[in-house]
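Researcher: Quick sanity check before group meeting.
Model: Go ahead. Protein one:
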Amino acid sequence: MESFSSTQAGTMIYVYQRAIESLKKGYFIQPERIVRKGSWEKELENKRRLQKQAVASQSAMEVRLNRALEEAEKYKLELSKLRQNNKSVTSFSEDQFSNI
């Protein structure tokens, strides 16, 4: 069994008492830092919430882009019909003038 000096033993007792008090207060002791019990849960919950918001935002953006694409296709088709109609009217007018 290892023997400790009274100073070392006193220090160890103090450290253990502080650790027990911290645990009773809801703190986890990690080598790098002391973390409040539940803070990692809150952080995880915040990250999940942010991820859900990002997914929802991306989904909304995709819906808006699809609507814009559909509208652009509609106008493209309408423009194509108008050009075709314009060609028909122009050729019809030229035929009428050539017959006169």
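Researcher: Fine. The other one?
Model: Protein two, sequence then structure:
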Amino acid sequence: MERLTKRHGKHAVQIGAETRRNDLGWQRLAEIEDLAEQGRLVELPVPEGTQVYILWGPKYRAGKNEYGINTGEFRLSDMPNLNKTVFITRAEAEARLAELEV
């Protein structure tokens, strides 16, 4: 992505030919672009609080392992488990569940 902003000192930000001082919106955009360049900007797959599908198990019952699917709300802490035990769609969770029950 091509950078839109250029910083001039601590308080001035330029976009195109226009420069603004103390414009919080432009400064925030420059901050976001700085983070992206540093590799520190994380794009979440869905907003926090979105319903997700969470696999549980194995639970040993009646001589076999059982697995299941619960719903929950997406949290930032779910990122390491995304597409392992936390899924955005029920179809993805069911597909993984089918693999585990084989």
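Researcher: One line on it for the slide.
Model: Residues 33 and 39 are 10 Å apart (CA to CA).
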